[in-house]
Amino acid sequence: MCDTCGCNLTPGNRHLAFKPVAKGATAVSVLKGLLQKNDDQAGHNREHFDRRGILAINLMSSPGSGKTALLEATLTALKDEFTCAVIEGDLETENDAERIRAKGVQAHQIVTGTACHLDAHLVHDALHHMNLDGVDILFIENVGNLVCPASFDLGQHLNVTLLSTTEGDDKPAKYPVMFRAADAMLITKTDLLAVLDDFEPAKAESHLRDLANPAPVMRLSARKDLGMDAWLAWLRNELAAQRARVALGQSRRPAIQPDGQTYHAATA
Ligand SMILES: Nc1nc2c(ncn2[C@@H]2O[C@H](COP(=O)(O)OP(=O)(O)OP(=O)(O)O)[C@@H](O)[C@H]2O)c(=O)[nH]1
Ligand SMILES: [Zn+2]
Ligand SMILES: [Zn+2]
Ligand SMILES: [Zn+2]
After folding, report:
1. For residues 234 and 218, is the Cβ–Cβ distance under 8 A?
2. SS3 of 102, please?
């Protein structure tokens, strides 16, 4: 268990870890218990969403790949069409939530302290601080980190992974856990391609395909309003799919990658 970086313990689940545990419990069994509790909580969160017909999307990427900038541009583009809400996750500061609120959209900031990912308990606490009535799409911006956010179910329906052109096109090969989890991959900051002579979007996509992930790949620049139409069309389509599932009493769980947890255990 990753005690040193605080990876598996967050302010949301700490109380569960320090409850008296059964005689004979080991670090591994306590960790398994925590992960099971996370999955149970995530299922409950999904019920909150499905009951209201909300589509919940988890945005993941390295720090600074443009998650908040993408949200700002998306919320502006959709403001007359859908009601959106945002949960922001960062180790410190309220900065990202303030950027979203400046767009006139409800945002709740989760400050994780030392934890390098969101978990289902943190998201549940946030949900109970929000008004979900009438919300069509809830975006959850995970902590900037290309490893462990892929391994914790939050109750979302879909994972969107961003890869910015400044990071190198080999990232899907180097961080397979994250890119296997993606239901869509967005290549962001394409306005910089002209000055970055070694990022090839086709190579980034081919590394994703090497992971046997058939997810759509979209290229866009939130800053310069390039390629946003395909992303917005994908969102509309996924919201319609969510509404169809809800009408049939069905739900969708994204491709959570438990091996990200193993990575942390092995390297701790
Ligand atoms: N050139 C360019 N810069 C961008 C684009 N999108 C974001 N940026 C810049 O990239 C930097 C980081 O953007 P953010 O949106 O804060 O990134 P983030 O992924 O939310 O960052 P964290 O929340 O810290 O992980 C900022 O300086 C943005 O202005 C883009 O499309 N083009
Ligand atoms: Zn960690
Ligand atoms: Zn951000
Ligand atoms: Zn609840």
Report:
1. yes
2. coil
For residue 260, which ligand has an atom nearest its CA?
A: 2
Is the beta carbon of 68 within 6 A of some atom in ligand 1? Answer: yes
DSSP 58: E
For position 260, what pLDDT does the model report?
53
Helix (H, G, I), strand (E, B) or coil at 124: helix
Q: Show the CA angle centred on residue 249, arms to residues 80 and 36, nearest 5°.
A: 100
What's the confidence (pLDDT) of residue 9? 78
Residue 92, C-beta contacts closer than 8 angstroms, at least 6 positions apart: 111, 113
pLDDT tens column, 18-58: 665 566 677 777 777 888 999 999 999 999 999 999 999 99
Say if ligand 1 is within 6 A of residue 109 CB.
Answer: no
pTM over 0.85: yes
